[in-house]
Design brief:
globular; seven-stranded mixed β-sheet; 330 residues; three-stranded antiparallel β-sheet; alpha/beta
């Protein structure tokens, strides 16, 4: 919390580093340099960009520690390469790209508040399709950091058949299959996400235990037969009416006494805590038509309306790591 004018100004200036990092990510700076050390001229040619502008950006990236510079040549610090190169299993690059897409929405926040709808925003220099792909990859990148630990808190009941609703590239499915060795799963998501999921599982030990079902969970029915449905980071995208409809679809897809688990931000009644949740509500405001964050009481009411019982706040987190579980009623 800011205590004086200088701290207020420092907080306001935080966008500068984000924009520098995001622009470097969108221009593919770290993949272009790879293990090499390149001059500004070489960078500009590979980027197909203006030399003066490229030099200014590269020097700023050096200044904040995301590149090194020696004898007028730029290289990625060895310690950061696993996180900034796209081919690495530890990469956070997709999330950097996604955050840059989000930032464009945040910059129009005042217009959004005045009009009640997200302000128009352009795509990145990479194009709309690449932005969509980076979103799917970003969900894998961020979820893989804590998926195993969170699923480990949910092993007090058996899981035989998992329905991963909006399962994206399968990060959470993989965590559940590891935690429940005799289980199988079906990932249901839009066709482009299913393509990424198939590729991610193709050469793994879990390939024979996963089925894939392309579709739109707001339009299509869900694959039946699961005893556990994972609704992960979805409910914040739409309003409560849409969530009730989705919960009802999940209920129809579950076997008798099947469980639904909703992973998302869960707000305190004041809606000012947790802090990450209050900020995430702004993110939904500027990037969706009707999305938002919800309290446990609201989620419990909507689950109950959809026909679930025994609603429980099973895991209480500070961000997108809370889990609410309910059982299919008779």
């Amino acid at each position: 919390m800011a205590q004086d004018g200088m701290q207020i100004l420092e907080m306001m200036g935080g966008y500068r580093q984000s924009c520098v990092i995001g622009a470097a990510a969108e221009l593919n700076v770290w993949d272009i340099v790879g293990e090499e050390a390149l001059s500004a001229e070489e960078f500009a040619r590979r980027l197909r960009a203006d030399l003066r502008a490229t030099t200014i950006l590269l020097d700023a990236v050096v200044a904040i520690g995301f590149l090194d510079k020696a004898e007028e040549r730029y290289s990625t610090p060895v310690a950061l390469r696993p996180f900034l190169q796209s081919a690495s299993s530890q990469t956070v690059l997709p999330m950097l790209l996604h955050q840059m897409n989000i930032l464009r929405g945040w910059s129009g926040l005042a217009w959004t508040v005045r009009g009640g709808v997200p302000a128009p925003r352009p795509s990145s220099v990479r194009g709309p399709q690449a932005d969509r792909e980076s979103f799917i990859a970003a969900m894998h990148s961020i979820s893989s950091l804590f998926a195993d630990a969170l699923v480990a808190k949910l092993t007090t009941f058996p899981v035989k058949r998992l329905l991963d609703v909006g399962g994206a590239s399968g990060t959470w499915t993989k965590a559940f299959l590891k935690a429940f060795p005799s289980s199988s799963a079906v990932i249901f998501d839009l066709p482009d996400a299913v393509v990424q999921a198939r590729a991610r599982f193709a050469q793994t030990e879990f390939a024979s235990r996963v089925d894939f079902a392309p579709g739109d969970f707001y339009k299509d029915e869900l694959p039946p037969g699961a005893d556990f449905a994972w609704v992960s980071a979805i409910v914040h995208q739409h309003d409560r009416a849409a969530n009730c409809d989705l919960f009802a679809k999940v209920r129809r897809a579950l076997v008798a006494d099947g469980l639904i688990a909703v992973r998302d931000v869960v707000m305190e009644p004041s809606r000012t805590e947790p802090t990450e949740g209050a900020l995430f509500a702004v993110n939904m405001l500027v990037n969706t038509d009707l999305g938002g964050t919800f309290t446990f009481a609201e989620l419990a009411e909507d689950l109950t309306e959809a026909g679930f019982v025994d609603v429980d706040f099973s895991v209480k987190g500070e961000s997108m790591d809370s889990v609410v579980i309910a059982r299919k009623g008779s």
